[in-house]
Amino acid sequence: MQLFGSIMILTLVLVSFVDLRINFLVGGDSMESQFEELAQSPDIIIATPDRLMHHLFEVDDMSLRSVEYVVFDEADCLFGMGFAEQLHKILAQLGANRQTLLFSATLPSALAEFAKAGLIDPQLFRLDLETMISPDLKLAFFTLRQEEKYPALLHLIMEHIGSDEQTLIFVSTKHHVEFLNVLLNI
Asked: Where is the Helicase ATP-binding domain (predicted)?
């Protein structure tokens, strides 16, 4: 799942500033190690719908009733990838006293129906073109050949980002997140 890499890198950046235990449940990783990590009672679980459902099916006493916040990021993509049924099942396993956040760049009818059916008094917030980007946000766009991307990123980090500035880097896959993590921690 391409969007999962962006979520992982964002979480890795944010968690470095707080004392929270986070588990990633993603297909392709060892179920046994994920079972062990879940046994540690993490504060935050970030999961793909299929892998979370797999854990709920495999672990008899796993419950989502105590979850206080649930976030469906890139919800339109999740629906577009066919995860609607899993998302409905996940919502059914959550307690009623939770806050649900659903983020989406678009609002297809299936997603709007999901929000109406699965959420209590949903609120819709839209960003207008004038308020989409903060004037304090620095943006840059570079056209590079594939082999120039990592050297350019390292140059930007080392030469143009101050040690007191927080930075988010978005990549398309889990593999890219892991590679950048190794690259930046050398």
From this structure: 1-125
Integer CA distances (angstroms), 34 to 60, 85, 139, in order: 15, 23, 37
Q: Which residues contact 133 (CB under 8 A, 6 or more apart)?
A: 139
The domain spanning residue 166 has which CATH number?
Answer: 3.40.50.300
pLDDT in tens, 79-114: 888 888 898 899 899 888 888 888 887 888 888 888
End-to-end CA distance of the chain: 27
Give the pLDDT confidence score for residue 1 in this predicted structure. 43
Contact 11, 179 (CB under 8 A): no
Provide the residue range defining the domain that includes 108. Answer: 2-184
Domain count, the chain: 1
Dist CA 89 CA 134 (whole Å): 36
Residue among 86, 134, 138, 77 nearest 111 (CA): 77
Q: Whole-angstrom Cα distance, residue 11 to residue 30? A: 20
Instruction: Provide the β-strand partners of residue 46.
Output: 24
Q: Which residue has the tokens 């504060």?
A: 43
The full 3-state SS of 114-174, as one line of letters, equals HHHHHCCCCCCCCCCCCCCCCCCCCCCCCCCCHHHHHHHHHHHHHHHCCCCCCCCCCCCCH
Q: Measured between alpha carbons, how far is 44 from 32 in angstroms, rounded to an integer?
A: 18
